[in-house]
Specification:
Oligomer: single chain
Structural class: alpha/beta
Distance between the termini: 27 Å
CATH superfamily of one domain: Alpha/Beta hydrolase fold, catalytic domain
Number of helices: 11
Strand content: 15-25%
Number of strands: 8
CATH architecture of one domain: 3-Layer(aba) Sandwich
Order of helices and strands: EEEHEHEHEHHHHHEHEHH
Length: 287
């Protein structure tokens, strides 16, 4: 595989990091990670290593995450849609396949609705935007606006055992995939000052009083490009029933359920995900 190239970009005077794997063709794939403690390499490195060299691949540390700047601003889906547009312009990408996980899926959805000519095919993994409300919406809204939200990051930072429990409970189904290296990586992120602020800001903006602030669900039927929906069978954050419902609304869509996986499905089984992704990008038809 080609060595990774680190590219520095700018968004509203802030420095942004993007990672580039040069492919044998000029066909582009852009990966968007999720929220919380995530970043581009954490979610996508193993997938990219399993993809082969056909595609020209970019994985971007969203503003507020990874080695990108983390300003004290209001984070939201509309902000990230314009962020992504700026990144693609700076990278001279006129059209790309777009793959997003969770919050990154919501960004991909919003971007594909606003800039459809720039998206060839869209891949949504455990994506935001399949439901107008999240599970226990009112309780979650109270929680993300309470002191407990920030405090939970502090508590997690004090206990690798608690981090492992959280990963096994909500993110990864196969205990063997929850390595000491992964837990240490997450622990180190938790020790960074203000690591919680970007996602807290995003949650407070997007989880509205009655429903999600950025309305993506009612526009799913407007998507024109081929869409692949991937969901973990045991994903509690984005239940399979939400993915199934979305697949029935999105006209040119396919659904792939990763059996036994939770919310971090592509991280749990990257080789399987890469195979499905390659098949979809190659001919748009899964076996």
């Amino acid at each position: 595989m080609q060595p990774m190239e680190l590219i520095k970009l700018i968004f509203q005077s802030y420095q942004i990091s993007a990672y580039h794997w040069k492919g044998e063709t000029n066909e582009k794939v852009v990966f968007l990670h999720g929220g919380g403690l995530d970043n581009a390499l954490l979610s996508w490195n193993e997938v990219i290593e399993s993809m082969g060299n056909q595609y020209d691949i970019y994985a971007i540390d969203l503003i507020g995450y990874g080695t990108s700047d983390k300003p004290d601003i209001v984070y939201s889906t509309p902000l990230y849609v314009e962020f992504l547009h700026s990144m693609l312009q700076q990278l001279h990408i006129e059209k790309t396949h777009l793959a997003g996980l969770s919050m990154g899926g919501g960004i991909g959805l919003g971007f594909s609705l606003k800039y459809p000519r720039m998206v060839d095919k869209l891949v949504l993994v455990g994506s935001v935007g399949f439901s107008e409300k999240i599970a226990f919406h009112s309780l979650c809204r109270w929680y993300v606006n309470s002191w407990l939200n920030s405090k939970s990051y502090e508590w997690l930072g004090k206990s690798k055992r608690l981090i492992k429990w959280l990963v096994l409970t909500s993110l990864i189904g196969d205990r063997k995939k929850v390595t000491d290296e992964l837990i240490t990586t997450l622990h180190n992120i938790l020790l960074e000052p203000g690591c919680n602020k970007p996602f807290e800001s995003f949650q407070r903006y997007e989880i509205g009083r009655k429903k999600m602030t950025t309305n993506l669900t009612s526009h799913l039927n407007e998507l024109q490009m081929p869409v692949l929906i991937v969901n973990g069978e045991k994903d509690f954050a984005v239940p399979v029933k939400s993915a199934i419902a979305a697949s029935k609304v999105i006209r040119n869509s396919q659904l792939y359920i990763m059996r036994g996986c939770k919310h971090w499905a592509q991280k749990e089984r990257p080789e399987e995900f890469a195979q499905i992704l390659n098949t979809f990008l190659l001919n748009n038809k899964l076996k």
